[in-house]
TrEMBL record:
Protein name stated in the entry: chitinase
CDD domains noted in UniProt: GH18_chitinase
Enzyme Commission number(s) from the entry: 3.2.1.14
Residue stretches making up the GH18 domain: 33-432
Gene3D superfamilies, per the entry: 3.10.50.10, Glycosidases (3.20.20.80)
Protein's organism: Clostridium weizhouense
Family according to the record: Belongs to the glycosyl hydrolase 18 family.
Length: 432
């Protein structure tokens, strides 16, 4: 999957044939690792997410992009959560221009696509080896999975809908199922959140759903289309599914090895600790190493099918006392700390760089968990996040244990204007 862009451009320059339609090919590589970045479709509206659009995705630094999110309708079909942004917006950089003389009926040739998906179509022509997937569900749109998975008829309807979408948009390479979470019921948190409905039958029905989707792809000569899942890294949620059974139907499993700690907890901790610090008595065995080993060693999932997660955002707490070490770690706190992405100290990674150098903030590193944290003794605020050093540790861990790569939440958190340093580090460390 390695892209030798510089070699290709040199050859094209010599040949004198660089044009606006140049295909940027992906050269072969011995690496089987993946760098999967999530693209938040709503980020176009959010300053905290840099008003991100598809053309801002670091296409030469990833192997896969997951479009977040589609949802499941009441009749068990998938649909966009934002039709305008995904299919109608004509203001994106590569949107087709109307030619009423050539196309008198509509102004556009048949098959023209606008919105984010029009941009995907364009970039797929430039980066044909980058896989584009539609991610279904997520935290706010998992409400219909329980019913959709409950009968074979419903499962088949959903799977056929996925096939129909990929037939309509053949540049889409697969589906990412992000059911958060099987067996669990929770109420809606705000006007954007649909909550989730669950029951004990979800444990096996999740496996059956993935089996039906895979078989339906194959029946429609879509053996090359990918089926992936994003799953919890928490043991209590993992045991509510059957990784040893469902793993055979998916191309890889994205283990969300982040959100181990956040403002919902009453004690500070690490957002994405690589290892468990035994002083963290609030979250025993809630770390990347324990999660990945649980899938690999207990459920016998092949290591190359397991992708760890990297967060390009922070979590935080307010009203945190220094504690015995003066750094606020593993101390009581609350979520009354608003960042540029929301409550609970949520900042994009590119903003954290500025906070690191802001007055009053001190940076620390947990030598056991291998992750950084920031504490401000004046404001009593605490932040946990990923930095380049912890990312290097994460990449080394993946390589040393022959895991399949990284999923990244999300693309908008990187420093878009200054070379995508985090995605670059991921790509160089895993793919090159």
């Amino acid at each position: 999957m390695k892209k030798t862009l510089s070699i290709l451009l040199s050859l094209l320059l010599i040949a004198g044939c660089i044009t606006s339609n140049t295909v940027i090919a992906n050269a072969s590589s011995n690496s089987t690792k993946r760098v999967v970045t999530y693209f938040p479709s709503w980020g176009v509206y959010q300053a905290g997410q840099q008003h991100i659009t598809v053309d801002k995705i670091p296409w030469d630094k990833i192997t896969h992009v997951n479009h977040a999110f589609f949802e499941i309708t009441s009749d068990f079909k998938i649909q966009t959560t934002d039709s305008y942004a995904d299919f109608e917006n004509t203001n994106f950089p590569h949107a087709a221009k109307a030619d009423w003389n050539k196309y008198p009926n509509t102004g556009y040739p048949e098959g023209t696509v606008f919105g984010h998906f029009g941009e995907y179509k364009y970039y797929k022509s430039k980066y044909p080896n980058v896989k584009i997937l539609i991610s279904v569900g997520g935290w706010t749109r998992s409400n219909m999975f329980h019913e959709a998975a409950s009968t074979e008829q419903n499962r088949k309807t959903l799977a056929n809908s996925m096939v129909d979408v990929m037939k309509q948009y053949p540049f889409i390479d697969g589906i990412d199922v992000d059911w958060e979470y099987p067996t669990e019921t929770r109420a809606s948190e705000d006007q954007y959140d649909r909550g989730c409905v669950g029951g004990p039958e979800d444990k096996h029905n999740f496996t059956l759903l993935l089996k039906t989707i895979r078989e339906t792809f194959d029946e429609n000569n879509m053996q090359d289309k990918l089926l992936t899942v994003a799953v919890s890294a928490g043991a209590s949620k993992i045991k509510n599914t059957e990784p040893d059974k469902y793993s055979q139907y998916v191309d890889y499993i994205g283990v969300m090895t982040y959100d181990f700690a956040g403002g919902w907890d009453k004690v500070t901790g690490h957002l994405a600790g690589l290892y468990l610090n035994p002083n963290d008595t609030t979250r025993p065995n809630f770390d990347m190493d324990d999660a990945m080993k649980l899938f690999r060693d207990t459920y016998n999932v092949p290591s190359n099918k397991l992708l760890a997660g990297s967060p390009l955002y922070s979590r935080g707490w307010a009203n945190v006392q220094p504690g015995p070490n003066g750094d606020g770690l593993f101390q009581p706190g609350d979520s009354n700390f608003k960042g540029n992405l929301g409550d609970g100290g949520q900042y994009s990674w590119y903003d954290i760089k500025n906070i690191e150098n802001a007055q009053g903030w001190v940076k620390y590193r947990d030598p056991i968990a291998k992750t950084p944290y920031l504490y401000n003794a004046n404001t009593k605020q605490f932040l946990t996040y990923e930095d380049k050093t912890s990312l290097k540790e994460r990449i080394n861990y993946i390589n040393d244990n022959n895991y399949g790569g990284l999923i990244v939440w999300d693309s908008s958190g990187d420093d878009v204007k200054n070379g995508w340093p985090m995605h670059t580090q991921m790509y160089n460390g895993l793919i090159k």
